[in-house]
Automatic annotation (TrEMBL):
Disordered: region residues: 361-383
Annotated DAGKc domain residues: 133-284
Name listed for the protein in its UniProt record: DAGKc domain-containing protein
SUPFAM superfamilies noted in UniProt: NAD kinase/diacylglycerol kinase-like
Source species of the chain: Amphiprion ocellaris
């Protein structure tokens, strides 16, 4: 594969060491420039190098005096160094840690040329502006009552600072009652001015956002939700989830962790995970939408009883589960389904799911491909 052309290449200083910093359209790399020192120390070149994907850079900006944190031991050296190289810029980027968690790390480069410093900031930000999947404006709904009632504090202390660093403007609404977010999205929200909707809460809050956004989309496109055979219109806006609930199942299923900072960084870099949405009807009347789970009978009774015990936090599910089990209720029902044709998965977005089952992993054989080509020939109009 051909190497990409360098957009910028300079010798800068990082923590009193001179480094060679290179930027191309996809990667920012830096490594120590003093090779003689590396040979004498016996440390390999790879140990002193680092690379960051441009798509995982959160922000780039000039570093003002006092922004570069130093320990007491190196304060004198840092002061002397800043006098020699007074110009600096900081790159904030995604750093992966354990168990699917992300953190926002940063690196500060120094030089003595103000024009060079400004050039690095300008060119890097130009590359970030080409990433069109990144949001610039978000509508945020916070549920202050979900989980352990820490939704507002989680957003203000952990999420909002990261959004500000990335230059994302937000319109924040703190919900005051059940279905407040759903009703606001369906009737009042100005969706043309935002690039996405973020919910701070648990699975119930996500359900509110989902129902409000999907219903608003169907209304705008003239789709009757009460018609079971109606084809739903996909939402153009994405939903971001900041976990602050009791279980956060949907967040776990999409991100792999229920960590607020991790979710915020996924939102910033524009990551997305397609999800199927199904509608539930009864006698040609729309009931609700479902994404992760649709329960009947035991699960419905459990959830109804647990809602009366929200003050217990996550423990309410265990208590309500035991209580519902000991009630010995039974439920009748019939499940009808249409078997799938063939053994191949055909997602609309052409992306494989993450479950690892054989359906998406199956590679069509030459016989399958020949059969598909024959079908296409039969379906094509004859002249």
């Amino acid at each position: 594969m051909d190497k990409q052309a360098k957009l910028l290449s300079s010798r800068l200083f990082l923590k009193l060491r001179q480094v060679e910093v290179v930027l191309n359209r996809s990667v920012l790399t830096w490594r120590e420039a003093d090779k003689e020192r590396k040979r004498s120390s016996g440390i390999s070149e790879a140990a002193h190098g680092r690379s960051v994907q441009v798509c995982e850079i959160v922000a780039v900006g000039r570093t003002e005096d006092g922004d570069d944190k130093r320990t007491r031991k190196s304060r004198k050296e840092a002061k002397r160094h800043s006098q020699l190289y007074p110009c600096a810029f900081t790159v904030s980027f995604v750093m992966r840690t354990r168990q699917h968690q992300w953190r926002c790390s940063e690196v500060t480069f120094h030089c003595n040329d103000q024009e060079l410093c400004n050039q690095w900031v300008r060119v890097t930000n130009e590359q970030l502006s080409l990433l069109t999947n990144r949001p610039k404006s978000l509508l945020v709904y916070i549920n202050p009552f979900g989980g352990k009632r820490r939704g507002k504090r989680i957003y203000e202390q952990k999420v909002a600072p990261v959004f500000r660093r990335a230059g994302i403007s937000t319109d924040v609404i703190v919900t005051e009652r059940a279905n407040h977010a759903r009703d606001h999205l369906k009737t009042e929200a100005s969706l043309d001015k935002c690039d996405g909707v973020v919910c701070v809460g648990g699975d119930g809050m996500f359900s509110e956002i989902l129902h409000g956004l999907v219903s608003r989309t169907q209304t705008d496109h003239g789709v009757d939700e009460n018609q079971p055979d109606a084809e739903l219109v996909s939402c153009s806006l994405r939903i971001g989830i900041i976990p602050a609930g009791s279980t956060d199942c949907v967040c776990f299923a999409t991100v792999g962790a229920n960590d607020p900072v991790t979710s915020a960084l996924h939102i910033i870099v524009g990551d997305s995970q397609p999800m199927d949405v199904c509608s539930v009807h009864h006698d040609d009347i729309f009931l609700r939408y479902s994404v992760s789970l649709l329960g009947y009978g035991f699960y419905g009774d459990l959830m109804t009883d647990s809602e009366r015990k929200r003050w217990l936090g996550p423990a309410r599910y265990d208590l309500s589960g035991v209580k519902t089990f000991l009630s010995h209720n039974y439920y009748k029902g019939t499940v009808s389904f249409l078997p799938a044709e063939g053994n191949l998965g055909n997602p609309k977005d052409k992306l494989q799911c993450r479950s690892g089952c054989r359906i998406c992993q199956h590679k069509p054989s030459s016989k399958d491909q020949h059969s598909e080509m024959s079908d296409k020939k039969e379906k094509s109009p004859k002249v």
